[in-house]
Write a structure and sequence with these properties.
alpha/beta, DeoC/FbaB/LacD_aldolase, 10% strand, DeoC, Aldolase_TIM, single chain, deoxyribose-phosphate aldolase activity, lyase
Length: 328
């Protein structure tokens, strides 16, 4: 853990490329063997009966129900929004998901389909998703357009090439600028705070756990509201050890800075067992404060149906076929 950092120290850390590099490379290194062993051990934890029922409902409430395909249509997004609002139309006790995540040009469609005042958020990828390799002006414009159309959250992808080349200042400045664009674009949100910013690290391209820790801290220092593992377009996407490192980072960041940041693993999370493993990881690493949709999300498309199947099995003693629920 790091000691508390005051405003003057923070200002010094972010004042130049050199000071950012000194700080990021001065972070404690990640014990690769230890991180992987701990994640594997926590994955064996068993949850039964009422605790499992609670975990399934909690996981449903944390889902960012996602469609990010070139073939996405307004009709598909409207169907996705209907499922977000009523995951199982036959059972009103099933919680709503946290958000739907779509491309910027479909934000207005999603917002309309969810209805005014909906507690299901609209998230939108922006900033040259999934590569992150566009000009800053394009990234800012993309963000402003998404939030003006009604996006409550923006999922920004960092330029991994810049990060891996050690251009930390460039990555920091781009995150700061996009965060400001989220605020400037405010108008469609009701809380007066603009859109929340989730920063996608694309951990599958960062090569080492040390880089994951550095990228996590860089994003948080720049103002990220959430740090997110992946676009879902790169393999590997979310993994338990990577998420463990990110959860340690947000825990230590809050201890040092006093600001809580959320975590979103995304990509490859398909089963109820997967989801529950992530919830155990959150509880044992960051703590109960993060066991809330405001602070932890699961980016997924096919996960919801498996959670619904497991939920129905616990309630009725029988499995429904996969075709019982609408396709994601």
């Amino acid at each position: 853990m790091l000691s508390a950092l005051d405003d003057a120290r923070l200002s010094d850390i972010t004042s130049s490329e050199a000071s950012l590099r000194r700080f990021l490379h001065g972070l404690p290194g990640v014990d690769q063997v230890g991180a992987e062993a701990r994640a594997a051990m926590l994955a064996t934890r068993s949850i039964k009966t009422t605790a499992k029922q609670f975990a399934i409902d909690l996981a449903i409430s944390m889902i960012d129900l996602t469609t990010l395909e070139g073939q996405d249509t307004p009709g598909k997004v409207r169907a996705l929004c209907a499922k977000a609002l009523r995951p199982d139309p036959s059972d009103r006790s099933v919680p709503r998901v946290a958000a739907v995540c779509v491309y910027p040009d479909l934000v207005a469609t999603a917002k309309e389909a969810l209805g005014a005042g909906s507690d299901v958020k609209v998230a939108s990828v922006a900033t040259g998703f999934p590569s992150g390799r566009t000009s800053l002006a394009v990234k800012e414009a993309d963000t402003r357009d998404a939030v003006a159309a009604g996006a409550d959250e923006v999922d920004m992808v960092i330029d991994r090439g810049a990060f891996l080349a050690g251009r930390y200042g460039q990555v920091f400045d781009e995150i700061v600028a996009v965060k400001q664009a989220c605020a400037r674009a405010h108008g469609a949100n009701d809380d007066g705070a603009g859109a929340h910013l989730k920063v996608i690290l694309e951990t599958g391209e960062l090569a080492t756990y040390d880089n994951v820790r550095r990228a996590s801290w860089l994003a948080m220092l720049a103002g990220a509201d959430f740090i997110k593992t992946s676009t879902g377009k790169v393999v590997p996407a979310a993994t338990l050890p990577v998420t463990l490192v990110m959860l340690e980072a947000v825990r230590d960041f809050r201890d040092a800075i006093g600001r809580q940041v959320g975590v979103k693993p995304a990509g490859g999370i398909r089963t109820s067992k997967d989801a529950i493993r992530y919830l155990v990881l959150v509880n044992e690493t960051a703590g109960e404060d993060w066991l809330d949709p405001d602070w932890f999300r699961l980016g997924a498309s096919s996960l919801l149906n498996d959670l619904l199947m497991q939920r129905q099995k616990m309630l009725t003693g029988r499995y429904a076929g996969p075709d019982y629920f609408t396709l994601d």
